[in-house]
Amino acid sequence: MDINELSSKIIGASIDVHKSLGPGLLESIYEECLCHEMRLRKLSFQNQVPLPIIYKGLKLNSNYRLDLIVENAVVVELKACERIEPIHKAQLLTYLKLSKMKLGLLLNFNVPIMRDGMVRIVNNLYET
Predict the structure, then answer these.
(1) What pLDDT is attached to residue 116?
(2) pLDDT in tens, 28-53
(3) Please, are residues 101 and 126 in contact by the beta-carbon 8 Å criterion?
(4) For the chain, which end, N or C, has fewer CB atoms within 10 Å of the first or last residue's CB respectively?
(5) Cα separation of 12 and 2, whole Å?
(6) Residue 13 in contact with residue 5, Cβ under 8 Å?
């Protein structure tokens, strides 16, 4: 499956979760439900994946975690906030760079219509 088809499936799963639950819950609830939805769709994923930070050869003792990595191809960052801010986009782009992945989805469930809470970010510095 190509990366665009995969991102469409992830977005479809997030829309189904949002239609069922609506806005106003904790991010952790949306994450658990999205994981269940992806299992139903037979998508492989990992959640709460540790993200090592290495600075000039020094591995930092950080507790950063990626919310989801789907099919070893897409980083998914979940939010349940009033609106997506520029810092959220920058955060996801940094996660993409550090994980050396190409595509990220920023999904904010605290919106009336899910499509208004979605941002797709491509890491142009991606190395194969």
Answers:
(1) 95
(2) 999 999 999 999 999 999 999 999 89
(3) yes
(4) C
(5) 16
(6) no
Strand (E) or helix (H) holding 103: strand 103-108
Quote the crossing angle between the two packed helices 3-21 and 27-40, to the nearest 10°.
Answer: 120
pLDDT(127) > 70: no
CB 96 within 8 A of CB 75: yes
| SS3 call for 46 | strand
Q: Please report the sign of the dihedral spanned by the C-alpha atoms of residue 15, residue 19, residue 22, residue 28.
A: negative
Question: Predicted confidence band at 126 (pLDDT cuts at 50, 70, 90)?
Answer: low
Helix segments in 2-128, DSSP class H:
3-21, 27-40, 86-99
In terms of DSSP bridges, do strands 74-79 and 103-108 run parallel, antiparallel, or are they unpaired? parallel
Burial (CB < 10 A; 0-12, 13-18, 19+), residue 5, is: exposed
Across the chain, what does the average pLDDT equal? 94
Max intra-chain CA distance, the chain: 46
User: Measured between alpha carbons, how far apart are the two ends of the chain, in Å?
Assistant: 17
